[in-house]
Amino acid sequence: MTENIVLKRVRLFSKKSKLIEEIDLISKAKKGSDKAFEELINIYKEYLYKMAFIYTKNEHDALDIYQETVYKIYLNIDKLKDSSYFKTWITRILINNVNMKKRHVNRFKYVEVEYL
User: Fold this and answer.
1) Which GO terms describe its molecular function (predicted)?
2) Residue 32: which domain range?
3) For the chain, what is the mean pLDDT?
4) Domain membership flag for residue 90
5) Residue 15 has what pLDDT?
6) How many Å apart are CA 112 and CA 109, to the nearest integer?
7) For residue 60, what is the domain's CATH number?
């Protein structure tokens, strides 16, 4: 019983320390640290790719969406208001990129033309 309480406290402490470390990386990335930005992306790269693949169901499109998302995160990280919402923010950027790609594809659908 005591072991369970200790394990729960250790997990809670571990989660809090990871969150603090992540917020510190976000702060450094906002100030222009490329190294901090790279570390942040390394934390979330698998998550971003999996989300992109879930939405696109295509490896090539998922990679395109992933790259565009990372690029937009890099350009706009200074606009993030609350660092504790970083994951939500990057997810929204990814979903917006998916929607833009779908609109672009739908805009240029092939239409069969009858020859005279």
Assistant:
1) sigma factor activity
2) 2-107
3) 86
4) yes
5) 64
6) 10
7) 1.10.1740.10
Q: Alpha carbon of 79 to those of 3, 33, 106: distances in Å?
A: 43, 15, 30
Asked if residue 41 lies in contact with residue 70, where contact means CB atoms within 8 angstroms, the answer is yes
Whole-number Å distance between alpha carbons of 95 and 13: 32
Rounded distance between C-alpha atoms, residue 57 and residue 51, angstroms: 10
Tokens representing 60 are 């090539």
112 occurs within a structural domain? no
Q: What count of residues does the chain have? A: 116
Q: Is residue 40 in a domain?
A: yes
**65, part of any domain:** yes
28, 39 contact by CB (below 8 A): no
Which DSSP category does 84 fall into? G
Chain CA centroid to CA 107, Å: 26
What is the secondary structure of 12-58 as a DSSP string?
Answer: HHHHHHHHHHHHHHHHHHHTT-HHHHHHHHHHHHHHHHHHHHHHH--
Closest CA to 97 of 71, 75, 69, 77: 69
Whether the model pTM is above 0.85 = no
